[in-house]
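Try this one yourself first.
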């Protein structure tokens, strides 16, 4: 269980006079990435072209929607590593039901699966008091097995992608803006308002900042953690709908690696891995920056696996910066 005993109003902890310096340390993780993107833009003319920007934003929309839910979980002081396999399962079910039943049923099924898995994760972590890392890692494996079992290891494909309104969700445009980007923006604004201005949002910050103190002040910590996981599951189910509509197919490993890339973006944006500090906007910024870095690597002609190296470096750097901001110094 990840926790930290400090006020959520002061993400760096300690007295407010040191808040600026501590937040500056935390941004050390994001500044090099932003500088790297600017430098890459000077050497790769197409990086900041309108078409490429739209393409990158479309590509990161799935990760961004998932990051919205994961942000709630991380701020609450927990982790959710099951989202990659959950995306795989939801996408396979969505694509399969699209042709066999209807697009509406496919969308409903994806959201329902996300809701159920989020509930199970929340119960395991909040009520059975299992370590969130172990519980969701186990769920990752379980969901991957269920996905393979239900499809017999076969990939799913929408038979006539050009003849269904479902394609608009992932491939359409509104006023020249890709539909997935609009979906991401709407969900980010709505859930950002919930996190920042609702009583529930304040409880999420309180639980992540100091769960014991929150319980003594009357906060239902178990219900709050459960709700955070439910939101994470629902957002992943929604992301699977967008993913399925964009690709019009699903493989039995479609979500592989998403758990790391989403967590990287969330931490890169400044949401504390220790809980109690962060925000939806920060997470989206982190996801977008990571998307542009990965896109720049591809435009440079580097092998795909270089993205994993960069993702690993981002995780290590962002966690180090976060811990440094908590300690108020760069080194232990």
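Now uncover the answer:
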């Amino acid at each position: 269980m990840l926790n930290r005993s400090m006020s959520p109003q002061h993400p760096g902890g300690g007295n407010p006079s040191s808040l600026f310096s501590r937040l500056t340390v935390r941004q050390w993780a994001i500044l090099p990435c932003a500088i790297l993107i600017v430098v890459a833009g000077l050497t790769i003319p197409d990086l900041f072209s309108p078409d490429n920007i739209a393409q990158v934003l479309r590509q990161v929309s799935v990760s961004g929607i998932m990051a919205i839910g994961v942000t709630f979980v991380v701020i609450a002081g927990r982790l959710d590593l099951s989202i990659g396999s959950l995306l795989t399962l939801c996408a396979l079910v969505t694509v399969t039901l699209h042709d066999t039943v209807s697009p509406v049923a496919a969308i409903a099924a994806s959201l329902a699966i996300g809701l159920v898995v989020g509930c199970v994760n929340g119960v395991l972590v909040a009520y059975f008091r299992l370590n969130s890392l172990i519980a969701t890692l186990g769920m990752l494996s379980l969901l991957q097995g269920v996905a393979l079992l239900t499809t017999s290891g076969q990939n799913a494909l929408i038979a006539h992608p050009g003849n269904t309104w479902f394609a608009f969700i992932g491939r359409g445009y509104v006023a020249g803006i890709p539909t997935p980007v609009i979906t991401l923006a709407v969900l980010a604004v709505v859930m950002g308002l919930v996190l920042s201005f609702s009583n529930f949002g304040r409880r999420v910050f309180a639980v992540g900042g100091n769960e014991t103190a929150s319980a003594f002040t009357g906060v239902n910590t178990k219900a709050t953690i459960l709700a955070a996981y439910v939101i994470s599951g629902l957002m992943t189910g929604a992301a699977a709908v967008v993913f399925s509509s964009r690709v019009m197919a699903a493989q039995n490993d479609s979500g592989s690696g998403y758990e790391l890339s989403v967590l990287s973006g969330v931490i890169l944006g400044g949401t504390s891995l220790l809980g109690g500090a962060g925000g939806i906007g920060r997470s989206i910024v982190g996801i977008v920056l990571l998307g542009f870095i990965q896109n720049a690597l591809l435009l440079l002609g580097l092998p795909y696996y270089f993205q994993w190296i960069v993702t690993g470096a981002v995780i290590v750097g962002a966690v180090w910066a976060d811990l440094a901001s908590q300690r108020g110094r760069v080194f232990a």
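Discussion: The longest strand covers residues 156-157. The radius of gyration is 20 Å.
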